[in-house]
Amino acid sequence: MTPITEVEGRRLALSNLDKVLYPATGTTKGEVLHYYAATAADVMLPHLRDRPLSFLRYPDGPEGLRFFTKNPPPGTPDWVRTAPVPRSDDPDARQVLAQDLPSLMWAANLVVEFHTHQWRQDSPAVADRMVFDLDPGPPASAVECCVVALWLRERLAEDGLSSYGKTSGSKGLHLLVPLEPTPSEEVMAYARKLAVEAQGALPDLAVYRMTRALRPGKVFVDFSQNAAAKTTAAPYTLRAKGSPAVSAPVTWDEIEACGAPGDLLFLAGDMTARLERHGDLLGPLTDPGQARPLPGI
């Protein structure tokens, strides 16, 4: 029998709670749901609210079938809000919004990675944050990503912009920058400019082109996730990897001190202590007072 629970007045059917999703750690679906409800919700929801969601679903764990979806899945409750996100192949397309704890838990029960656009549903294609996805090509690792991140922090600061880091939850690092609302195409152009500059300043370490042949041993400075149609793994989401790794905010001290890939790997079980110590390190991203204008290109 599927357990029924009530979350803030909404009835949820939570299924397969004893199912092991992460065999390497023995983490069950019930433990995943507990992570979202008890650990992540308070800090995660401000980063999700009003942002149309895409999901990478992995209902049988990271080693099972995985598929990416933008449309609300069949059976979505009528109390889960959605927003119009027209696409060329579907002008009537809508995507889910996680506005509250019941919506978050309903989505988490599907076993998903949460991915968000850089804009809010009331201003499509007008970004209020910029992202750089630093992706290492082996044998490069998170260590090299941190070197590139530090260069980008200083370069952004020259233009009056503050940046904040989080792990990708995989091999790399994300840098996020709060912005005054700016058309996504302008944010994309500026991010590309800095990615090109990063390659020029760090030619043995950074590359701005996606071409696989250029990437071994270097960090790909991916600026493309600033495109209006693209999404990025949300802060605090679990990833569909071998262990329940979190896309976890990190301090600049941690980035500066990173000496081994494992130094910036955080699992669901690490997050309660981290949040007690640091709070939400990405809090400035949800504070309009921290937003700054994008410089001219």
From TrEMBL:
Q: What is this protein called?
A: Non-homologous end-joining DNA ligase
Kindly give the Pfam families that the UniProt entry links to this protein: LigD_Prim-Pol
Q: Which residues form the DNA ligase D polymerase domain?
A: 28-281
What EC numbers are recorded for this enzyme? 6.5.1.1
| Entry keywords, A to Z | Ligase
Record bears the keyword Membrane: no
Q: Transmembrane stretches, by residue range?
A: none
Q: Which InterPro entries does the protein's record reference?
A: LigD_pol_dom, MtLigD_Pol-like, NHEJ_LigD
Its domain of life reads: Bacteria
Picking any one GO molecular function of the record gives: DNA ligase (ATP) activity
Q: Which top class of enzyme applies to this chain?
A: ligase
